[in-house]
User: Fold Sigma-70 family RNA polymerase sigma factor from Nocardioides pocheonensis.
Amino acid sequence: MEATLIGGRVAVTDDSAHDFAAWVEPHLPAMTRFAARLVSAADRDDLVQDALLRAWRRWATYQAERGAPLPWLLAIVADQGRRGRRRSRPPAVSVHDPRQHTRLTPADLDLERAIATLSARQRTAVDLYYFVDLDVATIAAVMGCAPGTVKATLSQARARLHQLLGEGDHV
Assistant:
């Protein structure tokens, strides 16, 4: 079976994999937005592709009673984003649509630079909350921690961003 990302949709070459494609398809926009926060635009689709392949290989281990598919899939994206050659963290182009081509303002660049100084845990929480638009409970599931930990992490990240950007700026 081969599952590939083509034009923002999952294409499969094995009829038995259509269930997987249907299962993962509603989560592709969030996976793509998160991948865009982790790697360059040129590597975004490769990261999603790698995550889809890993999800397909591990699909039998997914347990619905342990949580929804989205946190499981986003955790795979995060894990794949930390692996291999994807070590740099470029600024994202857009908050809502990573394929949208907009100019970053100086304020956007300042915010991206400030976010880049956060700890990996804080960046993940900020990316998932503000850029992927997930709720605290889902972020907790992705990060493998309690919702209170996510709230504390976001609070610490906001305080650090306020410190870096100034009280009235951006956050």
In short: Residues 84-101 have pLDDT under 50 and may be disordered.
